[in-house]
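INFO batch 0412 | record 1 of 1 | parsing
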Amino acid sequence: MDIEIHMALSFDTPEDRARQADKIIKNPANYKICEGCDSIVLSKAHTCPNCASYRFQESAASVVAQARLLGRRERRSVMASDFE
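INFO prediction complete | emitting tokens
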């Protein structure tokens, strides 16, 4: 299963992904993890913008661990912006 940090913008360079991960790690309460695709989304999202799932993991420790994992590697999943 592909895992992705999903925000309004695409963060494709390693530096951008690391910077976004740091932002998430500093404020994990603002984010949650989609249980459908493992994307990190804003906590106010009702459905995942990547896969439309509505189940989320909201634990701060889980969000931090996921951000660290995703911030260290290149993007692997396809996002809606890839089709534009």
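INFO post-check: Residues 5-9 have pLDDT under 50 and may be disordered.
INFO record closed
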